[in-house]
Amino acid sequence: MAQYSWATCPTATRVQINTFCENLRTILDTQLIGIYLHGSLAMGCFNPTRSDIDMLVVTQQALSVFVKRQLVLQLLQASNQPHPIEISFLVAEQINPYQHPLPFDLHYSETWREQNQAELVNGAWQHWNERRGTDIDLDAHITILQQRGITLYGQEHQQIFPEIPIKHYIAAIIDDYYGARETKSSNSVYFLLNTCRIHAYLQSCHIYSKDEGGVYGLTTLPVEFIGLITLALDIYRGRSAERKFEPELLDRFTTYMDNYIHEWQQA
């Protein structure tokens, strides 16, 4: 299975994204400032059988619940056709100048599909603007976007997004590590490759994709973990079928990274 960038992705992927972007432009009209791509497709390691499409959208002002309803209906239709979409809608004046934690106006991923469907039916969507959300993951998304992202429509991302303080980016990726650690047995490929790229940043300030992180891990982390990381890369790249990882070795890898983070924080 080949890996793709935005420039080389399959026709079905490009059609999904272009169609979705056109629909966003129609719904948001003059409110829309820009649509931005980050994640594996922007960094050239998109696997059509397992990767999400990761996007950020910036608008002029906070959106009405009626516009949000239109957007969620569009997302329910567009996501998983064929790839899952994970997306956050941000308001320009709420993100620049930078504040912490960063607020979002609307978020969608497949995790929220059933809840969104239910709220559209039972009328709870009418209260969406009564809740305000923040997400420290945005510190990581925007940092990656600034360095490796792609502007799909509108103003260039360098003009729109704030510079994220390094301490907040680090806090976000360490928080992500501990979150992935909780599900390492059921989501081992993500845990392993993401941990490798976190190590790479803490060690030398390199921002890597999960694939690049895995390659880094093969050459940098202890030799006992080479088989573990190689298998994670093979599965991620589509060269090997999904399989369970050896629990004891996975635990030793986790202990190694726990200790590394602890020592890094104490330094």
From TrEMBL:
<feature type="domain" description="Polymerase nucleotidyl transferase">
    <location>
        <begin position="23"/>
        <end position="95"/>
    </location>
</feature>
<protein>
    <submittedName>
        <fullName>Streptomycin 3''-adenylyltransferase</fullName>
    </submittedName>
</protein>
<feature type="domain" description="Adenylyltransferase AadA C-terminal">
    <location>
        <begin position="159"/>
        <end position="257"/>
    </location>
</feature>
<dbReference type="InterPro" id="IPR002934">
    <property type="entry name" value="Polymerase_NTP_transf_dom"/>
</dbReference>
<dbReference type="InterPro" id="IPR043519">
    <property type="entry name" value="NT_sf"/>
</dbReference>
<dbReference type="InterPro" id="IPR024172">
    <property type="entry name" value="AadA/Aad9"/>
</dbReference>
<dbReference type="Pfam" id="PF13427">
    <property type="entry name" value="AadA_C"/>
</dbReference>
<dbReference type="Pfam" id="PF01909">
    <property type="entry name" value="NTP_transf_2"/>
</dbReference>
<dbReference type="InterPro" id="IPR025184">
    <property type="entry name" value="AadA_C"/>
</dbReference>
<keyword id="KW-0046">Antibiotic resistance</keyword>
<keyword id="KW-0808">Transferase</keyword>
